[in-house]
Structures are given as structure tokens and as C-alpha cells.
Amino acid sequence: MRTAAVRDHGVVVALAALVVALSLSTDTFLTTGNLVNLLDQTVVVGLLACGMTLCVVCGAFDLAVGAVLAVSAVVAVLVTRSAGVPAGYAAGVATGALMGTVSGLVVVLTRVHSFIATLALSIVYRGLAVVITGGAIVYPRAAQLDAFQMIGWPTALGGVTAATLVLAGAAAACWVLLAGTAFGRRVHAVGGNAEAARLSGVRTGPVRVAVFATSGACAGTAGLVMAARGGSAQPNLGNLLELSAIAAVVLGGTSILGGEGAIWRSLIGVLILGLISNGFNLLGWNPTYKQVIEGVLILCAVTLDQFLRHRKT
Amino acid sequence: MDVALERVRKSYGGVTVLHETSLDLPSGRVHGVVGENGAGKSTLARILCGAVRPDSGRVTVDGEPVRIAAPRDALRHGIALVTQESAIVPALSVLDNVFLGTRGRGSGRRSRFAALAARTGFELPPGARAGELPLARRQQVEILRALAHGARLIALDEPTALLPKADAAALLGLVRDLAAEGTAIVLVSHRLDEVLATCDTVTVLRDGRRVSSGPAAGLTPDGLLREMVGRPVETLYPDPPPVPDGAPVVLAARDVSRGRAVRGVSLDVRAGEIVGLAGLAGSGRTETLRLLFGADRMDGGEVTVAGRRPRARGPAGTTALGMAFVPESRAEQGLVLVRPTAENLGLAALPARRLVRRSTELRSAAATAAEVGIRGAGLDRPAWTLSGGNQQKAVFGKWLVRRPRVLLADEPTRGADVAAKARIHRLITGLAAEGVAVLAASSEVEEVLGLAHRVLVMRDGRIAGEFPRGAAGPEDVLALAGLR
């Protein structure tokens, strides 16, 4: 039981310790500007991690989110050019959801392990982004640029960016979906034991497709945020961000073996990764070591997870 | 070399499958071990060869206790096991498989292989990939491997189950030859005739205990059967409530088939009726239940509940008609062990689209848990914290939330202790009294006879016959099932 407690509360303690350590060791950490900046930097990986959490709890991986992000961003910009900013935003999210649905259908129908299936699909999607753009960077029209970038603006809420609020909203929605609905119960059951779920009358196929669709919608939203920040979109946007998302999910203590996990855990995972980055910046440490620390942390989290699971069976 | 088991004991998750059991296995003798499914025979054989570690007790070789923590320890002491599920490496050649784990390579192996083949009379192509051999021939590879390791004690678990008669006779002849050369043999088998014909001594296990042990001479198959089955059935099982006259047929199956496992099964179960499904391992009991529930796809045939066919494919369709299914393996098919018990109890009755409140979920689960008598650490704790018997009750419980019309139960009391068993039996008869149509399959003939109004006996994927309640004893059922 004691090791389970490490996972249940350890991440919270680790987050608090990081905050305390950075507050004490730097003058700059606890400034409004830094904190607003820190939150804003977590938005993209945070959005991807929300969708990824649903997938991982359902016993699947979505390695295509980085590519879905790129296609969604490109589509958002192109639709903005021809039909205006609101339509562009809607198109970005819708594209993500649609591509997620396609990933889900491929995983369910081919029965190829989601890890491999979505890896292959991510290559396809990247290719699609290149085809759509012709390999070039795409921009909204000059007159639309201000409106298109509004998601990156600070808001009245203490100056946090609109993007941060978007993440908060998406996370809240995913949280309720996973922890408080009948659908969420099915997601847990399919991830924990797909055969038992099926033999209890749960239609596992639609559940799987739905989590991929959600993950796609989250990636589409993340694509919007990136395109808005940069004021442009290009085919290699968000490259390898799927790995950061999985890292955050795992670090938070969601089991990669499926059936156990929570959105709040992934948010903490995202924050821990963000704080480590932020700390290296503020302390002026060599960022090369950052990767080493992140990698070791992820390994520790996965090892703990497997150890806990092993004892149960 | 004389091997002995001394007071070995083994339990899984609170259920003792082998009570303190001792066994002497002198060299040059063939020792038969018989018993019903779940009596502890395979556990015994697996402890001997290091595949399972006993909770207490020890293995001795020539009176000296030896430490056997893994199969390679057993092999070092000259003990080998040949199992039903063959332990070969499919991608390697027959030759490599035979000498797997031995030192030395190269040309010496071929001549040693030829010598072993000559000694046993097995005609195996040394260069062929082992995975391409049929199951029965893979067993020969394992026997050769045991001999190549210089095994002085060979345990054979159901070695003739897959063999045609002539091959089985040849194998048993080899067993006698090996014994004559001084090897000790443990023969675990369902086939009492061959046990009596081959073995010097026979041990009967029942419910994980040694019931008797003695020379095979003078024993009869009927006598062994009586010892295997134990006390008379009537004392354990009360009569189920009678099926009302004119109770309608709820579950109807016509010509249900799948491959060679299920070949045209037709049956009717009326409201309030408990029908038992008996048969040996591999007779198609489990497969039939899975087909009726839609867990596997049928090649042909039709299943209806109260005259209606399922509208969707698979369990989603049959559960919508009110079917409930208690599968063979609760850990793999019945429960999501990492989720709380409360969620498991609610799983089969989740609303299509709605918010789920934790408090409501727990309250509903508490009512179900009380009904089926689940005792454990708490309903908000993962299901794996429950003992085997309580897990089994939970599998039943999840179906009770939406009152089922049909209950299909495969091995309903597997791994449950005596108290949990009685509780589950009461549960089944109680459901029948409410008008649920019950079809229950079990490898324990005693249980099927005790529970059911009517017993269907399966053999080779077909229904071989039917006995009304009280018309047959375990011996009759086993005879019809093809045991002898």
C-alpha cells in the first residue's frame, strides 16, 4: 500500500517541492510575468496530454497527435484565409476530431496495435500536411492576423493568456468525461480488461474510436494555439510533441498498462515538465542536462507503475 | 534415485488447491495420480518439476531435501515434466529443442539424437521446425528432451489425451520400458483404464487432499471413480425449486456450430429451469456457452431469447435481450481487476449516456454486494483485493443489477471455497426460483448433478445424451462423456 501512496500523492509532493525550491533559489520565479509565461508554455503539451490520457486509460497510444496538430493548424490557417477567423478556428478543431476518428477506426478495424498503427498514420498525416501546403509556410491574410492571434492574448484574469483558459476548459471537459460519465467508466473498463468489458456487453470498438476522436480534437485545438502564436502554420509543426504528451501522462502516474489514470495527474505531469524547463532557464543551467533528468524521471514513473501492477496479479 | 514430496501445500489467492500432501516416488516404478478436475493433480506435478513453488513442504531426493525454485533446478536433479501444453520453442529445429538447455553442440548431438530416437522408437525429423509438428508429436520432442537431460524421474501430465489409441498404447509401453530401466514415472491421467494397466501404485486426489494411495493391483475403475468423486451427491445439494408446469422456453438454440468444437448443438431452457452442461475437458462445454452468448461468432445456427433474435452482433446484442454470462476465467474475462469492485458491479448495467455519481454508484453496488454476499476490503477498492470466491460472487453480482432472463454460467464456482460455493449455489437456485433460465457448465460432475433439473452431457462438440434429475450418478455421466 505504501508504494501505491507514492504514486497517488508523490506527484503532488514533487510538484510542490519544485515550486518551493524554485521560489527559494530564484528571485524571478514568483513573478506574475514568469508564472503567466509558465502556464502559457504548458498549453500545447497540456492539450495533447488531456487527449492522450483518455487514450492511455483506454489502453491505447495516439502517436499521431503531433501530425494531427500540424494538419489542423494548416487547415485552420487556410480556412481562415478563405472564410474568416471563426470558421478557421472551427475548422481546426473539427479537422483534429475527424483525423482522430480516422485513427480510431484504423486501430479498431485493422486490429494493429495502436502504437504501430498511429505511428504509421502520423507519417501519413505529415505527408498530407505537406501535400496541402506544398511544403510551404502558410499565413492568414494580413488584415486577419490580429484576430487570428487572439488566442494568445492576455485576458482580464490576472493577465493569463486566452490559450491558458482554453486548456483549463478542455481539461475540465476531459476530466468530467473520464471521471464522471458512463462513457468514462467504459473507457476505464476497456483499458483495464477489454475482454471482460466486451463480455459485459460494452461495445469496445466505438469506445476506442471515441477516445481517439477526443484526442484528435485536443490536438486540433493545440494546433490552433501554435498557429495563432506564430501567426502561421507549416507541415512540421509540433514534431515529436506526442512524446512530450506521453511523458507528461506517464509522469503524472497514469498507468501505461491501461485502466488507471486521471486528467489531473497529466496536468501535474505537464506542470512538472514545465517547471523543470523553467528552472533550467531561470537558474541559467545547461539545458543539455534537462533532457537527462526528464528521461530518468519518466523511466522512474514507468518502473513504479509496472512494479505496482505486478504485485496485483 | 528416490524422489519424495513431503507435506507440500499450495494455495492461490486464499484458496488452497493442495493441502499438505506427501508422495513417495521410488525409481523404477510408475506412479499414477488420478482425480477430478481441480483436485490438485497438475499442481502436484508442477511442484515436482519446479514450475510451481509450494507454500510449504519440501521435495527430497534420496532422503536429502533439495531446493527446487525453477524448472532448471529440477532438471539438475534429474526431474522433468512433460505437459499437456507443450513447452517447445516453435522456431527452433527438433534437434535444438531436444538439446535445449544442455551444454555441448555440433556433431555429437546428431548421434545422441539417433540413439534416443532408437531407444524410444520415435521417428522425428531432427531438422524440421518443431512448430510445424502436430501437437502429439511435440510431446515426443519433450520426452526426448527429458531423456537427453538424463532425467531419472519423468512426470507426464495427461500424455495420452491427444493421442489415437495405437499411439497411446505405444507411449504407455515406452513408459513401462523406461521404468524397467530404472526411471521413476509419474503418470497424471483421466483415463482410469490406462492408469490401472500401466501403473504400479495409484494415488487418488480429491479437493487437494490425498484420499488413498496404494498398489494398482486389485483396484477397479469403478472403485477409483467412487474415491475421486467422494461423498454422495444428495447430501450436499438441496433440490432446486420445481419448474412450474407450462413455464415457457426462454433460451432456445438450434444447430449452433463453430468449427470442430461445437457441432450442431440444439437445446431449450425454460423459465425457472436449471440445465447442467457436463462433459470432459475439450468436449465443447465452454465453447457452447460462449457461442450462445455471442462471445464467439457462430458458423451456423440460431439463438433466441423468448423467441427474439439478438439485433446486434456479439455480447452487446445478447445482453440487450437479457442474457447474462459468467465466463470460465474471472480474472481474464469476468472482472476488470484494476478497477474498484463498485465499478465492476455497475459495468453490465451502465446507462447509455449519463453522468455517473460516485455516491449513487457505491450505494447501488452495496445493495448488489449484500445480495450476493461479497466480503472484502471495500467496494471502492480494486477488485483484485477480493479473494477468489468473492471475486466470483462479483462476476455474478454485476448481472443482477439488470435482472437477467437467461444466465449462462461456466464453472460457476471455480476457485471458490466451500462456503462461497454454497453461497453461489444458493444464488443460482434463487435466480431460477425467480424465473431465470439457467444453463450451467462445470467440470465437476458432482456440481452439475447437484444443481440442475436436467443434465446435458457433451462429447466431441455434440450433446451425447440427457439425464433428468436423480436419474444418473457421476459414473453414468462420465461414462456417457466418454471417460471410459
UniProtKB/TrEMBL annotation, chain A:
Main location: membrane
Entry annotated with the keyword Cell membrane: yes
Keywords: Cell membrane, Membrane, Transmembrane, Transmembrane helix
Localization in the cell: Cell membrane
Pfam families according to UniProt: BPD_transp_2
Keyword Electron transport part of the UniProt annotation: no
Mode of membrane association: Multi-pass membrane protein
Transmembrane segments: 44-77, 89-109, 115-139, 151-178, 240-257, 263-283
PANTHER family tied to this protein: ABC TRANSPORTER PERMEASE PROTEIN YPHD-RELATED-RELATED, RIBOSE IMPORT PERMEASE PROTEIN RBSC
Descriptive protein name: ABC transporter permease
Native organism: Actinomadura yumaensis
Automatic annotation (TrEMBL), chain B:
Domain ABC transporter: 3-232, 247-483
Record keywords: ATP-binding, Nucleotide-binding, Repeat, Transport
Record-linked InterPro entries: AAA+_ATPase (IPR003593), ABC_carbohydrate_import_ATPase (IPR050107), ABC_transporter-like_ATP-bd (IPR003439), ABC_transporter-like_CS (IPR017871), P-loop_NTPase (IPR027417)
Protein name (record): Sugar ABC transporter ATP-binding protein
Entry-linked Pfam families: ABC_tran
Source species: Actinomadura yumaensis
Single annotated GO MF: ATP binding
PROSITE patterns xrefs: ABC_TRANSPORTER_1 (PS00211), ABC_TRANSPORTER_2 (PS50893)
Record SUPFAM superfamilies: P-loop containing nucleoside triphosphate hydrolases (SSF52540)
